[in-house]
Recover the amino acids of this structure.
């Protein structure tokens, strides 16, 4: 799911998109409930930044600019790790950014559960950590899927769906497998993001701040599934020479007589 970035299949992109979009939807809804701020994208933050600058609220403008910078830094960090370590160990290069994201969310969840006093400074710092984590996720999924999967915001995705819907008004486009696969991928990401947000809302009503740990579990499934798949593939590759030898020994030989 995350280890293959050269010859990715539609199935791998759907798996990657569904799980990461689900976690992004959960994170965004949690941040809105607790902090009244969106953390899975920065589109709205640019508008807020412009507003704060126009009103002369320089401290708030600096804070929002920092949030945008941290989202940028998250994208930069994940791609930097991938491009520098992918040749040696692709799986490790792709899993390290997810581990960093998990650590960020664990820190936020633990701090909120045991130390959070709901001060403005604490809120700003928690939002900062979550924006950095979402930047990491968005940069990673975009990098390893060759920009086919972006799961932390749906603005561009909704635009693409609208374009595809118009293309499907023509029969030849409806029969185009590439366009149909893209439609399936985009719908999966949108549905998973929405499902993650709805789930986060319900889970928060039940277990409150522990919802952060649920998000981390979903991210662990992403890297755990790939680790299991790689181990199984290597095991089968080691067994193939043995099976080929057995099959060869059992193949009847033609007689010369």
């Amino acid at each position: 799911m995350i280890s293959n970035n050269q010859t990715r299949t539609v199935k791998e992109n759907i798996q990657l998109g569904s799980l990461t979009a689900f976690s992004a939807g959960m994170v965004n809804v949690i941040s809105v409930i607790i902090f009244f701020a969106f953390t899975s994208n920065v589109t709205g933050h640019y508008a807020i930044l412009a507003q704060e600058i126009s009103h002369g609220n320089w401290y708030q403008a600096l804070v929002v600019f920092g949030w945008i910078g941290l989202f940028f830094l998250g994208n930069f960090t994940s791609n930097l790790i991938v491009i520098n370590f992918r040749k040696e160990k692709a799986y490790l290069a792709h899993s390290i950014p997810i581990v960093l994201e998990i650590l960020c969310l664990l820190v936020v969840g633990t701090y909120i559960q045991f130390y959070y006093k709901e001060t403005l400074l604490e809120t700003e710092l928690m939002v900062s950590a979550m924006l950095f984590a979402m930047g990491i996720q968005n940069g990673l999924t975009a990098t390893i899927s060759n920009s086919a999967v972006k799961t932390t915001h749906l603005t561009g995705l909704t635009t693409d769906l609208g374009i595809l819907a118009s293309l499907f008004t023509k029969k030849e486009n409806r029969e185009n497998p590439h366009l149909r696969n893209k439609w399936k991928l985009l719908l999966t990401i949108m549905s998973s993001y929405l499902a993650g947000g709805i789930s986060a809302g319900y889970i928060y009503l039940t277990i409150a701040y522990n919802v952060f740990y649920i998000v981390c579990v979903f991210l662990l499934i992403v890297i755990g599934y790939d680790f299991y798949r790689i181990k199984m593939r290597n095991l089968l590759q080691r067994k193939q020479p043995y099976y080929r030898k057995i099959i060869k020994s059992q193949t009847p030989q033609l007689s010369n007589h």
Q: What stands out?
A: The first helix runs from residue 10 to 35. The two ends are 55 Å apart (CA to CA). Residues 158 and 177 are 20 Å apart (CA to CA). The mean pLDDT is 83.
